[in-house]
Amino acid sequence: MENDPNPGGASVFQHRSVLLAEVLEAMEPVPPGLVLDATLGGAGHAAALLAARSDLELLGVDRDPDALVVAAGRLERFGTRVRTAHANFAQLGDLLDELDEPLVGALFDLGVSSPQIDRPERGFSYRFTGPLDMRMDPTQELTAEVVVNTYPVDRLTRILADGGDVPAARRVAREIVARRPLETTDDLVEATNAGTPAAVRRRGNPAKRVFQGVRLEVNDELESLIDALDQTIDRLVPGGRVTVLAYHSGEDRLVKERFRRADRGGCSCPSGLPCVCGSTPEGRLINRKPIVASEAEVAANPRAASVRMRTLEKGRRAS
């Protein structure tokens, strides 16, 4: 996730990459070859990685065409070492197969970027008046307006509870339905406040979680993440690494479970005892507990406060 001091700029991706030193350290041991940045954004991590390792090439992917334009300019100095693609997580496997090069590393910096949040016309933020959009890829059809105005109460409740960890999710969902049609972000904020108990509102702005849940649904972020991790881990060479930066519990939980399954290889033996079931791990966890931002980094960039970073190294196949 990145920081934009100029929220009015339609094509400005001034950025402060989160956990930059930690990402570089995680990727330092990978062999020469191709690195995938699956969430290229402002290309902060990508540029630093290419500068640090002259033996690496990059495939930079993003759903946002604006981000790709800016990233291409920032990465121009690396010449033919860089290729970019406008694509989503579901297309990663096909892109990598087309290149047919050894994949030695992958980075997923999840969530919405600060330049996207800070542009009211994108509709991501409850802090600004804007349309109910929330699409990371402006070319896709599904928008937040469709979600909040057409989904039945039960489905709305589920996406708010599962994606946003929204307290009183059903009450909020019912209020949204009762106020249809909703047209702006302000309409969604008002429905959220009306459906949220006062005790919950005193703990913080409830719209933050509601907007998160709707955004995850619009962009199919959780389901597509599972598939993307599977495709990436499968294509990594032995010794290759995948690093994920997650910013909320739902994302981090999925990453933790997928990496743990790769580390155990489907082993059903009791934890702490030697494996006797013959399972072969896909890889090994580089950090058993997630890496978080330092106090200094959070002070400089408050949006780093919730980040959790995990890294998996691909293991060697059994002979």
UniProtKB/TrEMBL annotation:
Keyword presence, Cell division: no
Keyword list, A-Z: Cytoplasm, Methyltransferase, rRNA processing, S-adenosyl-L-methionine, Transferase
GO biological process terms on file: rRNA base methylation
Binding site for S-adenosyl-L-methionine: 43-45, 62, 89, 109, 116
GO cellular component terms given for this protein: cytoplasm
Catalytic activity: cytidine(1402) in 16S rRNA + S-adenosyl-L-methionine = N(4)-methylcytidine(1402) in 16S rRNA + S-adenosyl-L-homocysteine + H(+)
Entry's Gene Ontology molecular function annotations: rRNA (cytosine-N4-)-methyltransferase activity
One Pfam family here: Methyltransf_5
Enzyme Commission number, as recorded: 2.1.1.199
Gene3D superfamilies: Putative methyltransferase TM0872, insert domain, Vaccinia Virus protein VP39
Localization per record: Cytoplasm
Function: Specifically methylates the N4 position of cytidine in position 1402 (C1402) of 16S rRNA.
Family: Belongs to the methyltransferase superfamily. RsmH family.
Protein name per UniProt: Ribosomal RNA small subunit methyltransferase H
The gene coding this protein: mraW
